[in-house]
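Fold it.
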Amino acid sequence: MDKVRFSIGAKYILIVSLIIIISFTFITVFMYRYIHNDLQVSSEAANAEINRINSVEVDSLLSKISSGAKIFIQTLNAPGISGRSAVEAAADMFFSENKNIGAVYYIHPESGNQSFVNSRFFASLGIDESLADTFFESRHYLFDQARYTIDGQPLIINAVSFFSRSVLALFFSLQNEGTSQSTLAGVLFSSDNIDYSLSYGKNTSWLVNSYGDVLAYTDFSVLITGTNISNLEFFDNIFSIRDSSGKQVVKSDISILRPPVNIKDKYIILSFWENAKPRIQSVFFKVKTLLYKINIIKDEPVIENNQSRLISFTKLNSANAVLITAADNDYIFYGINSAAGFVICISAAVLIISIIITALFSRSISVPLRSLAAAAKRIENGDFSNKIKIINRDETGVLASGFNKMSLALNSFGKFTNREVVLKSMRGDIAPGGIPKHCTVLFSDIHDFAVKSDNFLKYYGNEGSEKIVLWLNEYYSKMIDCVEKTNGVTDKLIGDALMAHWGTAYTTGSPRNDAFACIKTALMMRKALFLLNKTRRKNDNSDPFIQIGCGISSGIATAGQIGSDKHVEYTVIGAPVNAAAQIGSCAKSSGADILISEDTYNLVGDKFKTQEMPPVTVKGKERPVKIFAVINFLDEPKGPQCIDDVRSLLGISVQDIK
């Protein structure tokens, strides 16, 4: 198991969180459902009472207007009322007592059409009074409809869109005494008093006729646009039942069903809930859609944007209209929602505090364990030098101390062998036994090492051995670093000789790429050695110049763990190894520092500038082997461009070449 999937601290936090969440959820649900039911009953009763009070006021006002208009018409047609002055006096008296009535228009079977207009009414509204006759004459069909209304109820029509003012019209018929004929009449009147009475706190009422036209409402923009709600299902239900009043819960997104409430009057938590509610609904919709797609549920999900509202209604006796009062459930229950939100906030605060306390407590265990896990991961990745800080004096402290000792031992062991091989062996990537590998092998050694070694002993005396080791360590640090940068394996160090190979424990998957990495390493070694020699003085026996020769060869070799049951070594054996060693020994006599075999040249010769050198005889080969001196990368403009440049750069004299 490479990763901790569920830490100890997370388990502590989860257990505490579950206890708190379950406890507070039970309390919140119990409180919410208990209070919610009680609030539902009281809000329904309050909404119904508001609707009843408003309907009584509106019914009374409409009854007064229709009855007053009927009396006025009957008075004008009564015996003894004749002459223009008498009629005008009666009309003036009528409009003085009914200032909210703008015009009366009737069709008498004998006297014909008669129109009476309240000039003061139209002047106060800034309307041309001639529009009254135009309105009635353009709506003669309503007079005929008024003749056949059920129970003789007047028809009430929205005239707001015609006059651009809060004006309604009543159409009714009245029976003439002594005849079977009836008079058809229409009345224009202001609905301001009705609009004003419809606003009652967070409950809003509106007046609608049997056609679905909104006649009175607190928002004038709804009236002027001629809003009609006949397409709403609940509206058809109201007029289809015989009951004169009732209540029901509806869902609708029509604006007039939304009570006008100042946002400042809301609680902060309710405001937050209203903003978050669409997002929560969206999440539920996506979940439901997913369940539908995988056949967990059978009903296709539908996005529901409508708001739930409680409505109460009363059919008016004075006209073909109904008064509807609505209360938005979000506002009805904003108190309980706020309380629930407050409980949720308290729960969240308790949960956060508990998590903090639990996290602090669990740190005494989880932090040391995480440190151990991270250190173990670093060791797996090859970093054996890490050390864990011992925090506690309990079992975790003892475990950390033992881990530090193990890390120290591994770090020491890693210096005695190749780190990459150690890691692959730890991971089980290197199996026992030999495996044929197409690899590229590099051998390098220091020219005249025996002479330099003797000079150290002569110059330093008894300290000569220590100085030689320090001198070699500095050299090998640079060389081995070049090998590791190209993912090569440093096989062994034999005195002044270094053996490395590519395509064995680690491979790019291509013999060509492995060979390229090997030659690139040799060029890096050349550069590193050049920079190292720049810090040295010529003919300094205490810190002499270093010149090396590298032999490189490619081919099939056997790679594996070779040794006894007590000591093994990962290495390669075979023809490429022998060839690389023998080619490297010819470097000094050839006047070159990097020599490659023909096999290696065939793989990557097109990537480098090379010069063919005299062939050499290699053990196991019947014919001399072609060798090539590596000068530089093919497209590299800097550095040596020919073999003479290489010799000049490295200080190889003509006398050294045999």
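The mean pLDDT is 80.
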